[in-house]
Design goal:
43% of the residues lie in helices and 19% in strands. It is α/β, with parallel strands linked by helices.
Length: 222
């Protein structure tokens, strides 16, 4: 089969936010200001409630401006080993391994930053990563984004473009996600799978008879 299996990351493969884990470690190391401790819960809450404003993401990450790529990548590796690795759902690891054993192409498609999920991608041995990227000049982060965030329709467009370059039809592809924000992409592939879905996505998945996987409960559900 020529199709591709695409996976969201946060709350799909991992119990917690990869970005949240990363920023928490960066604060601990004194790399970013501790005032972010009061901002992160608000971002998390608005995201889970479905009222997250994309503009907040499009403004970039000014508190990372001036940091070298090597520093950011080193923190990402440390964050993965210290926390994110333990956040992985065992069933998610098994699923990725099973698909790779079937010689399926597996790609991460996430709104998280590319260097944050890079260690996870290496650990899982996936074939590619589509993610939000920061702008760097001479190896130093500007705090701005390179392009636009991998969010909602942008994620759909980039995933379908990636599939097209590999001669994979959308009907042959699968996408696994927890979030209502990913509905445009879920509706565009032949195998949409709701993984640990939020309330709105669960309702839609049930109505459309999409597979539902509740990994935290260690068993598939419908």
């Amino acid at each position: 089969m020529a199709g591709i299996e695409f996976f969201d990351v946060d709350h799909t493969l991992t119990r917690r936010s990869s970005g949240g884990r990363y920023v928490a470690l960066a604060m601990k190391r004194g790399v970013v200001p501790r005032r972010l401790l009061f901002v992160l819960p608000w971002y998390s809450l608005t995201y889970r409630l479905g009222i997250f404003r994309l503009r907040a993401y499009e403004d970039g990450f000014p508190y990372l401006g001036g940091l070298s790529r090597s520093t950011l990548e080193s923190l990402a590796r440390e964050s993965f080993e210290a926390t994110l690795k333990n956040d992985l759902f065992p069933q998610a690891i098994e699923l990725v391994q099973e698909l790779r054993g079937q010689r399926r192409t597996v790609v991460l498609a996430t709104s998280s930053l590319d260097f944050i999920v890079a260690p996870l991608a290496d650990y899982l041995g996936v074939d590619g990563v589509l993610a939000t990227a920061l702008e760097f000049k001479d190896g130093v982060c500007t705090g701005r984004l390179e392009g636009v965030p991998m969010f909602r329709r942008e994620k759909k467009d980039r995933v379908l473009a990636y599939a097209a370059t590999r001669n994979a039809l959308p009907a042959e592809c699968g996408f696994y996600s927890d979030s209502i924000y990913d509905l445009p992409l879920l509706e565009s592939v032949g195998r949409p799978v709701a993984v640990n879905p939020d309330i709105r996505l669960r309702r839609i998945a049930r109505a459309r008879r999409w597979p539902i996987m509740d990994l935290a409960r260690s068993r598939p559900a419908r």
